[in-house]
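Need residues for this backbone.
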């Protein structure tokens, strides 16, 4: 649905994009993660036809963002990280105004207004002024505005920025619902734990280029070997010594009868490690996989890219 190849963009001496490439499959919720200044907003602005790349290509739904900008705008809904609203309009009037810009008036516009307000859980705010809304409510209203023309693709730049925890949860559930409705969503964010729960795919961007992309599970598997926790009744040092002799086992730590370690080889490697400890006569009380974190995976990939760039 979204294909980007070799994008480059400079602002004076600053190289915002340095050959950035990514692919967002149709129907995916794609988390675009990176530190401030990594190139996330510039990429989204290029995809939204608001900035011209210096080199490279980008397509949304098969339409080129430079040569077919009008078609891209019909396919795409855009929600910037900072947005303005008309405070002197009521919530319903606000959506009616944007519906009119799309050529919709009268009963069709009213029906669309009501359905969108229901979707973003603002139906009871229709007659209230926009200025009275909380930031979280304004975010949901801005998302409703982006959905006015029923786009196939949504570009969301830091949509949870500045929201309180409850508002972030509400927004996350709304985005999940939009994903179930078949929308393809590209969402940039630095709140990595929430992306892990929301996204189907992820791209890690650093220094103006995507350094890794794939599914959430693939990212955690590639970026950090799976970890395990082994609790024994006694002889923890002996258990650790047995594990240290096994191929593919490393990063062993022992604390209060619990051994934590990393292990290659997937489920078979983990089973072999457990069997070796039990076979050595050490009584095992508990054995479990330690869930990898998206934050740890991101930091490892970003640091590797920084080291490679420094060496190069």
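Answer:
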């Amino acid at each position: 649905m979204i294909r980007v190849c070799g994008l480059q963009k400079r602002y004076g001496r600053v190289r915002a994009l340095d050959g950035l490439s990514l692919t967002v499959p149709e129907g995916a919720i794609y988390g675009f993660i990176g530190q401030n200044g990594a190139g996330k907003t510039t990429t989204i602005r290029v995809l939204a036809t608001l900035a011209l790349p210096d080199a490279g290509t980008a397509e949304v739904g098969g339409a080129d963002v430079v040569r077919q900008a009008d078609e891209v705008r019909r396919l795409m809904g855009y929600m910037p990280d900072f947005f303005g609203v008309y405070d002197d309009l009521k919530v319903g009037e606000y959506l009616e105004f944007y519906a009119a810009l799309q050529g919709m008036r009268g009963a069709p516009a009213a029906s669309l207004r009501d359905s969108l307000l229901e979707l973003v859980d603002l139906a009871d705010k229709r007659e209230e002024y926009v200025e009275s809304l909380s930031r979280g409510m304004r975010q949901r209203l801005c998302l409703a505005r982006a959905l006015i023309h029923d786009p196939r693709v949504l570009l969301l730049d830091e949509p949870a920025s500045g929201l309180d925890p409850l508002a972030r949860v509400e927004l996350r559930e709304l985005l999940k619902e939009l994903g179930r409705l078949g929308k393809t969503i590209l969402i940039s964010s630095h709140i990595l734990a929430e992306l892990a729960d929301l996204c189907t795919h992820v791209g890690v961007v650093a220094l103006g280029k995507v350094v890794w992309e794939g599914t959430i599970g693939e990212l955690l598997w590639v970026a950090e070997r799976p970890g395990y926790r082994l609790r024994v009744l006694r002889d923890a040092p002996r258990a650790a010594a047995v594990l240290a002799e096994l191929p593919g086992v490393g990063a062993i730590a022992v604390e209060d009868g619990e051994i934590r370690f990393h292990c290659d080889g997937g489920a078979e490697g983990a089973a072999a490690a457990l069997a070796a400890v039990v076979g050595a006569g050490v009584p095992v009380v508990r054995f479990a996989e330690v869930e990898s974190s998206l934050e740890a995976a991101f930091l490892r990939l970003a640091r590797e890219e920084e080291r490679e760039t420094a060496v190069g």
